[in-house]
Write a structure and sequence with these properties.
The complex is a heterotrimer of chains A (about 170), B (about 375) and C (about 70). By secondary structure, chain A is an alpha/beta fold. Chain A is about 35% helix and about 20% strand. In chain A, about 35% of the residues are buried. The radius of gyration of chain C is 16 Å and the shape is flat. The C terminus of chain C is likely disordered. Chains B and C meet through strand 1, strand 4, strand 5, strand 6 and strand 7 of B and helix 1 and helix 2 of C.
Chain lengths: ~170, ~375, ~70
């Protein structure tokens, strides 16, 4: 019994996901909000993006969306975008949330939303938490953030964006 | 038991999992709830509660609540009929006439929660005061997740001490009661829509363990209940929760209980929930409970005045109960982020026919209505 | 009884698949909590030990009952 318990607890996963400094994972996903539009990683190869994976069933994910909109607006002229990848089982719930978000903001959110039904992105990055975000500059990962942004750590990503834009 | 605990503590100390335990537990919210119990033997309990959860910092949170039980109990004449002018107290309260109720119990609880990627630690204290009974308890609980929180092990314990101050000026040789409880549970995900949880408790009680108001009237004597001054109990439960059809979940729960009074019980419970809409869930439950009585509980007519132990409380005899109920959980969409939640439930509870119930209450069985209502607002 | 519970537990564990954090959508719903109706569960922990002779191994420890 002791051996069974110990062997279960000591099973180790080999960490092969892209790390900071590596090339970001390629993707080509349907837009969550625009019909017949595809969102591709290669469209951002010459940009600075905040890549975020979120779900409508995750409270922290939804709470940070207004902050992402603020970032998207603030640095729009600096070739910066926020790309938010949704992983809901049903896209309708996520679309309904984005509609409510736009109503709350009083304008269309300055975020590009894509839909990853097969969860290929969190699988490729071996995500241990949802949400997670990556700062990707010219196709290369320069910083990773796990968990949602709150008032006490928003300044961190703002500083990282401004440093990357210099 | 000690060896199992030792291994569990070693495992918890050694493993430092980098994985987030679960969705954040600490949050800012306020809860108002109201619970109501009423039965056919004259007991009515109204129980409002106000609760507050507050994030204090990134890793610390506070939970505080205050619950009030307003208890009404009918005075009834019972027993062999020889006693005609004695007011008989209900099993759960003494008449005190406070605030329009027979008894008023006030119970504040405060706890702190520490949460980080590795584990969740809760500790706190509970206090309860009513006219004839006062309790204070301390408790703590530690949870650690493994393998992306696919397995969660929880250990907890509590220590409670209580003091009786019976009305009617009955002097007790020992008016105190203590309870020490150890809890352990393991939760294991089976797949992305099912999990199983195994829970165990070991409870040690000592002191005055009877009700100071229960007494037996038999031919030739009237004696207050006498029970052993120690009781060791073990309970083990297994729960399965799974969603096999879209928008539904099924909960199956079995608990086995035994103690050194030779009380044995089996509890079987099934709950079914259905998401009627995204923000409205309906539920139905059925619960069956069957108990073998204490070894010292005899048919009522067989007690003698010199028996070591005397029982008049049906709770320590053999009987079955059935509970059936409905529930709903609703989050109005017009509140931002569905911040407001409403819970409502109704259950019908009944025992089978029992001679001790008949002897004490004058009714063959107990039938009760239980209603709960709660409003929670997340900030 | 102990052996039966251990065997059931091992049987269940042997059929388990690993669930990644991003696959927990269903598990995150209210109806999948061990006690979705939290207020009723707390009231059950209060009423059942008073009306019945058993206690313990409940789905959530609320800190005590102070039950007589």
């Amino acid at each position: 019994m002791k051996k069974i318990v110990v062997s279960i607890l000591f099973s180790v996963a080999v960490f092969a996901a892209p790390q900071v400094g590596d090339k970001a994972v390629e993707f080509s996903l349907p837009s969550l909000t625009l019909k017949d539009k595809t969102v591709k990683m290669q469209d951002y190869n010459n940009k600075l993006i905040l890549f975020n994976v979120w779900a409508s069933w995750c409270k922290g994910c939804k709470k940070e969306m207004p902050f992402f909109h603020k970032l998207g607006k603030k640095y729009a002229q600096d070739n910066f975008e926020v790309v938010a990848i949704n992983i809901d089982k049903k896209g309708k719930k996520a679309q309904s949330y984005v509609k409510k978000l736009n109503e709350k903001l009083g304008e269309i959110a300055k975020i590009t939303f894509a839909y990853d039904k097969k969860k290929s992105m969190p699988e490729a990055y071996e995500a241990k938490v949802v949400p997670f975000s990556l700062l990707i500059n010219n196709g290369k990962i320069i910083k990773s953030y796990y968990g949602s942004f709150k008032e006490d750590n928003e300044h961190e990503v703002i500083a990282d964006i401004e440093a990357a834009l210099k | 038991m000690q060896m199992i605990l030792k291994y569990l503590f070693i495992i918890l100390a050694v493993i430092a999992s980098p994985f987030k335990l679960m969705a954040e537990t600490i949050k800012d919210s306020v809860t108002f709830s109201y619970s109501y119990y009423s039965d056919n033997v004259g007991v009515e309990v109204l129980s409002p509660l106000i609760g507050l959860q507050q994030r204090l910092s990134e890793k610390w949170g506070l939970n505080a609540s205050i619950q009030v039980d307003a208890i009404s109990a009918a005075s009834m004449r019972r027993g062999s009929g020889n006693v005609t002018d004695t007011v008989i107290m209900d099993a759960v309260s003494g008449a005190s006439g406070r605030g329009g109720y027979d008894d008023l119990r006030v119970a504040p609880t405060v706890s702190f929660v520490y949460e980080d990627d590795d584990f969740l630690f809760t500790f706190g204290s509970y206090y309860s005061n009513e006219v004839d009974y006062e309790t204070i308890a301390g408790f703590m609980e530690l949870s650690n997740g493994f393998n992306d929180a696919n397995t969660i092990i929880t250990l907890g314990g509590s220590y409670e001490t209580a003091k009786w101050s019976p009305i009617m000026n009955r002097a007790l040789v020992d008016d105190s009661k203590t309870q020490r409880q150890l809890n352990a549970s393991v939760m294991q995900l089976i797949n992305d829509s099912a999990y199983v949880q195994v829970r165990g408790s070991y409870i040690v009680q000592d002191g005055f363990l009877a009700s100071p108001y229960h007494y037996l009237i038999a031919d030739g004597f009237a004696q207050f209940d006498r029970y052993p001054d120690a009781r060791n109990s073990t309970a083990v439960a297994i729960q399965y929760v799974g969603s096999h059809f879209e928008d539904t979940s099924l909960h199956l729960n079995y608990r086995y209980y035994k103690d050194d009074w030779e009380i044995r019980s089996h509890t079987l419970e099934a709950n079914f929930y259905y998401d009627m809409m995204d923000n409205l869930t309906l539920g139905a439950r059925g619960r069956y409970y069957t108990q073998d009585g204490a070894e010292f509980a005899k048919p009522i007519g067989e007690y003698s005045v010199n028996d070591d132990y005397i029982v008049s409380d049906y709770k320590y005899t053999s009987f079955d109960t059935v509970t059936m109920g409905l529930s709903c959980h609703y989050k109005p969409g017009f509140f931002e982020d569905e911040a407001l939640g409403l819970q409502l439930s109704y259950d019908y509870y009944s025992t089978d026919d029992n001679s001790y119930i008949k002897n004490w209450y004058g009714k063959s069985s107990i039938e009760a209505d239980m209603v709960t209502f709660a409003l929670t607002y997340d900030f | 009884m102990k052996i039966a519970l251990i065997m059931i537990a091992l049987l269940i564990l042997s059929g388990c698949t690993h669930v990644a954090p991003y696959e927990k959508e269903e598990l995150a719903t209210q109806k999948m909590l061990a006690a979705p109706m939290t207020t009723r569960a707390a009231f059950d922990s209060h009423v059942f030990p008073i009306r019945e002779g058993s206690f313990g191994a409940e789905s959530g420890f609320s800190g005590g009952c102070g039950c007589k």
